[in-house]
Amino acid sequence: MKIQDIEAVKLLLSTPKKIAIIPHRGPDGDAMGSTLGLYHFLLKNNHQPTVIAPNDFPNFLAWLPGSETVKIFEKDTENCTKILEEAELIFTLDFNALHRTGEMEHTLAKMTAPFIMIDHHEKPHNYAAYTYSDTSYGSTCEMIYNFILFLNKKEDLDKTIATCIYTGILTDSGSFRFPKTTGNTHRIVAELIDLGVENTEIPVLLFDNSSYGRLQLLGRALQNMKIFSEHKTSYTFLTQEELDSFNYVKGDTEGIVNYGLSIKDIIFTAIFIENKEEKIIKISFRSQGGFDVNQFARDHFNGGGHTNAAGGKSEVSMEETLKKFEDLVIKLEI
């Protein structure tokens, strides 16, 4: 973050303000960890922060401290719009383009309060007055830790803030397995643990609380998996009918995409999930090594993200979407 921006933000935060904090639509561990970590930090500094998520977050994140205070835009649009209109400052975390908030985009575009963007994705849009954008970081939560240090407020870090930040680092780093996990990432995590983070309990809360239906859904996804050995690619899919038959709830498909990379010699994988309500196929891409799924998603599926983890969508049928993907795969040189 530029020195002049840090000084300007310090000045903005020097007096109590009404502040809105926004994650992206379909918030994950990093989105919720960063927004709630910042929420508790701002609360500690006498501000009036409110986290407004575009839509609901997964049940496996509901234990995060402060999650019960989060407002859901699509459930309470009128009240959330009022909070945004009254906000004197708006933070957008873990995304860098307003369309990533879905239906909130048009409301946010009308706001006159200054925006502060903190994000680690590529190609940021220029809607924010102050931008902290750095693709070298594996998570926005790691950047929130740095942001607090930029403000010379390290002494404000406590177990609650540390718990939120740790959660986002853990989830977005693939439990410290992804390439952007650096020595500095581990040094930050060590400090968070020293602040009291329950580092043996949090993975259980995040990953080991599956319902029977979720395990059945995982089984179906594994049954649906297809392998293109010559192209070092795999993919799986879940139809709306399959989701419904296993009593799908938000968050049940989290992490399933990674199973495709656990197969020997596979370096590119995807999962396609039908959402009839939104009339789209939601897609997650993962890769290992140098294959750039961010560019692949941008070029072919109206998406984007990181080199090794990206998302996209398709507005045609599952059958047509899978056919398109297969046709692309057989042309790949991986």
From TrEMBL:
The signal peptide, as residue positions, is none
Xref: InterPro entries? DDH_dom (IPR001667), DHH_sf (IPR038763), DHHA1_dom (IPR003156), Oligoribo/pAp-PDE_c-di-AMP_PDE (IPR051319)
Domain DHHA1 spans what residues?
246-328
Please list the residue ranges annotated as the DDH domain: 18-169
Q: Which Gene3D superfamilies match?
A: 3.10.310.30, inorganic pyrophosphatase (n-terminal core)
What Pfam families does this protein's entry cite?
DHH, DHHA1
Task: Tell me the GO molecular function terms.
Answer: nucleic acid binding
Protein name in the entry? DHH family phosphoesterase
UniProt organism field? Flavobacterium salmonis
